[in-house]
Amino acid sequence: MIKKFILLLTISLELTMAQNIELAQSLYNNYELFREKTLLHKRLKHAEILPLIEALKKDKNFSVKKAGESAEGREIFLISIGKGNSKVFLWSQMHGDEATATMALFDIFNFFRTQDEFSNYKKVILENLSIYFMPMVNPDGAEKYQRRTSFEIDINRDFNRLQTPEALLLRETFEDLKAEFGFNLHDQSTRYAVGNTYKSAAIAFLAPSLDHQKSIDSVRDNSMKLISTLTKMLEQFIPGHIAKYKDDYEPRAFGDNFQKLGTSTILIESGIWKDDRENQYIRKLNFITLITALYSIATKSYKHQSTKIYEQIPQNEERIFDLLLRNLKYNNGKEIIITDLGINQNEVSFNKSTEFYISSTVQDIGDLSVFYGFNEFDFSGYELSMGKTYPEEFSSIKELERYDLNKLYRKGYTNVKLKSAKFNLPFTKLPINIKLNNNKTKMHGIKLLGSKPNFIIQKNGEVHFAVINGFLIGVKFPYGKVENALVE
Ligand SMILES: [Zn+2]
Q1: Ligand 1 center from residue 366 Cα (angstroms)
Q2: Which of 130, 134, 235, 471 has an alpha carbon within 20 to 30 A of 398's alpha carbon?
Q3: Domain edge (last residue) among 282, 297, 318
Q4: Does the pTM of the predicted model rise above 0.90?
Q5: pLDDT tens digits, 202-237
Q6: How many Å lie between the centroid of ligand 1 and the Cα of residue 187?
Q7: What is the Å distance from ligand 1's center to 456 Cα?
């Protein structure tokens, strides 16, 4: 009898897992049907989501209410759908510069609004769950593309003091709902790899701790089981790209407190995917993950999953540079050394934080053999030198545009002087740095660490590559592209 029962249980577990995976695959293949096409970039503003929320108000399946306002008076909404007994609460972007999941929430609204082959899944979800969404908890931070609110306070450290109206609103909404499951949706550092592998952490999960001892009660156990289910599902799309966020107890954070107060909480951190600066692929993964999670909660299939998968997820490790150049010979003025260079291409916002340009930095040098690069090259036998400024002035941008820049790279130049030109912003789309004639800044000398990466890479006295503002380009052979150079 017991054997038979176990057998049935095993079959039902496999069946529900298979259903989860089938649903996820189908969502993956049909994502374009649901993608909210007006949302295209991570510097998302409150004004961009307002018309979408207006449209939801007209949909009778949704309830949309104003939950409150940010400190600067932007409306924060609570949107709900479903008639089930189990409550699920999802909130996004309590950090203003972490919009990936907000975009995915609008894809999820579209999912529930369309008539299609998924109707059976939707029925199961909406009959069993009442789902509450609070997208963009920190619209003032989003406006400036910054983590903190307009009070310069981190909402996620304001659970106890409640000095920001946004934290107060989130906490009150939580206490009002007393949901069974909570989804705390964030973006994490773009430097994380999964454990000690070269694979970027595309998604990191955490079942937040209840205390410093990292105890496990039934509430946290359910979070772990659900994360195990989601990890197994996601592995088919991004094998090896799923990490665990650090599980140190943080008594000032929302996730940790919600978990303690009885809501099984799941932290989802959107990470990084190569060549996806606007996080659109990770957004798609969020969409699939969250719908699979809802289905799994609705069917309670997560309960059959062991927490082992969760326990075995490797930690986030800060190991990724944008560009990693290995084994270069370099004369530092004292000695000829062999060094690796870890270069990061940092985004700088402009135009009211709706756009960005890149300003790169040499983040680390020395033996970087335990690190990885999104792009990396072994330059054994090559020599690095600082790029120089071409001594003759160009009269205009036009003249510079017509010039064969390869000639300059071959002579060791990565910067040019310009007699007169107006630049509103300190960058250019031309693949060479521009020094304005009123600029008196000195050369950076021979200091590598922390410098702006403008280099020449040669072998046997011949220039093979140049690095312009942290972008590697071929000189001897065509290779690579400079997204932008700098104007100083
Ligand atoms: Zn965050």
Answers
A1: 31
A2: 471
A3: 318
A4: yes
A5: 999 999 999 999 999 999 999 999 999 999 999 999
A6: 5
A7: 38
